[in-house]
Amino acid sequence: MNTHVAGHPGTLSQMRQDDLMTTLYRTHERELVPRAEALARTALFPRLRYMGSKYRLLPHLSSVFEEVGGGRALDAFSGSGVVSYLLKAQGFEVTSNDFLDFPAAITSATVVNQTELLTHEDVRAIVGPAADDRDFISRTFDGLYFNAEDRAFLDSAWSHIDRLGGAKRHIAIAALVLSAARKQPRGVFTFTDSTRYADGRRDLTLTLREHFVERVAEYNATVFDDGQTHRALVGDIADLPPSDFDLVYLDPPYAPQSDDADYMKRYHFLQGLAVYWEGQEIMTTTKTKKIIKKYTPFAYKRTIVDALARTFEQFADAGALVMSYSSNAVPDAATIVSLLRHVKATVEVHPIDHTYTFGTHAAATRRAVSEYLFVAR
Ligand SMILES: C[S@@+](CC[C@H](N)C(=O)[O-])C[C@H]1O[C@@H](n2cnc3c(N)ncnc32)[C@H](O)[C@@H]1O
After folding, report:
1. Which residue out of 75, 98, 325 has the highest number of ligand 1 atoms within 8 Å of its CB and is therefore the one to mutate?
2. CATH annotation of 28-96+230-251+301-377
């Protein structure tokens, strides 16, 4: 059965029939898009600097995904969204999930969205005069992030975005989030003195208004129609119904030996910006005005093993589980293999070696780290 016909959605009844077939017989025979083509398309995906993002591993991931095959894929911890986009580009029907909101804005704009673009008129309105007098961002982050003009732009942009619906809204939010991430030195919101890392990079000198226009063009360029129905979800992975996925990709936070893997601490401003801080609780006594942390058992040495075991159990019926993990983190590869063996007959480990540079000075130490890809089926 070949259900992937790029750009030519089947009729409704044909799609229902395909759905039924997918449920009855897992569709490992779906014809995928050639890897080179999928990777070339994914190279267009706008880059968000994000802890643990897999931009550099896309060639490895795409070959494992191709080898596993199938029709329905879950990207359970989507983050920057680049892996969800790769899966769509390869021809999978994608469910994308993360417990933060901005990842879903990005995948709603680029993966779920098949046809809608933000037009020149839409952009002109968003960068034009404000539609109301809101000033939450200007007031709350005065003296902390960006200058007064940039903060006023974020408020003003949101006064228009609030009037948008559907994929246009998602593209606008994704572009606003990426603009803020690019302009913040190092892309993280753990410090408030932006002169500390000011290095004259173009990204730091553009106004957020100028960024926004460029980032919209980049997100518009990612939109393509493959005739499939993709989903972008916001929620804890433990609450996601397992469905009948052929491929489940797991890229949880890496529980480090020391420190933590707290995404909210680093990216709270992007999380707030994606929803205009609605429903978010700011810890007003913190210097960075961060949002209260979302607990995840994957971020800690004490709870990670149990969390992995439960997640493998949850998706035990999937055709294949593919998981990324670092040799730098806890638990070790042997433990992960034995946990996967509880739910799957065969487990392969693909180590991908690369060298990280620790420290920022010239004498920074370089240490070889293996990024593992576990494939269990
Ligand atoms: C290593 S990052 C994923 C990176 C992603 N694959 C990429 O290439 O950008 C881990 C992600 O897991 C999310 N996360 C952490 N705990 C979670 C949980 N319990 N449920 C859902 N998402 C979670 C974080 O918000 C973060 O975006």
Report:
1. 98
2. 3.40.50.150
Ordered by start, the domain boundaries in the chain are 28-96+230-251+301-377, 116-222+260-297
Question: What is the per-residue pLDDT across 166-215, written as a single tens digit (0 to 9) for each?
Answer: 999 999 999 999 999 999 999 999 999 877 777 788 999 999 999 999 99
Q: Which of 54, 85, 88, 99 to mutate to test the pocket of ligand 1 (most atoms within 8 A of CB)?
A: 99
pTM of the model: 0.90
* 45 ligand 1 Cβ < 6 A: no
The string of DSSP codes covering 228-239 is ---EEEES-GGG
What atom in ligand 1 is closest to the CA of residue 254? Answer: 1
* DSSP-assigned beta bridge partners for residue 368: 355
Cite the beta strand spans of 207-346 per DSSP E: 231-234, 247-250, 255-256, 320-326, 329-330
Please provide residue 97's backbone torsions phi and psi, each rounded to the nearest 5 degrees. -140, 145
Q: How far is CA 176 from CA 52, 215, 340, in A?
A: 21, 8, 39
- Ligand 1 close to Cβ of residue 371 (< 6 A): no
